[in-house]
Amino acid sequence: ICSAPTDWKMNDIATEFIEEVRNKVGPNGHVIGAVSGGVDSSVAAVLLNKAIGTRFHAIMVDNGCLRLNESSNVVARLKEKEGIDLHLVDAADRFLTALKGVTEPESKRKIIGNM
Question: Which of 109, 72, 98, 84 lies closest to 34 in space, CA to CA?
Fold first, then answer.
């Protein structure tokens, strides 16, 4: 439909990304990355872990607005199953206290942005 090339393979893209990370980070560098639990950040975390192993340090912040059991599911999937060095920060009380009684979306965005 859009005349995009069809000669690419997902494995090639992943392999190229892993090699690029290894080259940029070098043999001793470390990377810190945020994980939201969504597909994009989870895939990025898995690829970074494949690229540099324990030198990748993932952080997930539970802001209290996630789906039920979302943070524990992400930890089970990424830390326990994939072996990613994932640190879960439970900031639910901090976020929910700051947002208590605030209904206007732009005000919420500003409050969160200043935390």
Answer: 84
Buried-exposed string 76-104: b where 16+ CB fall within 10 A, e elsewhere: ebbbeeeebbbebeeeeeebeeebeeeee
Which DSSP state fits 67?
Answer: P
In tens, the pLDDT along 49-70 reads 999 999 999 999 999 999 999 9
Distance, CA of 6 to CA of 52 (rounded, Å): 30
Retrieve residue 27's tokens: 């043999």
Cα diameter, the chain: 53
Tens digits of residue pLDDT in 2-43: 888 888 787 789 999 999 999 999 999 999 999 999 999 999
For residue 54, what is the DSSP state?
Answer: G
pTM summary value: 0.84
Q: Can you name the residues that pair with 56 across neighbouring β-strands?
A: 31
Question: How much of the chain is in helix, strand and coil states, percent to nearest 5?
Answer: 55, 15, 30
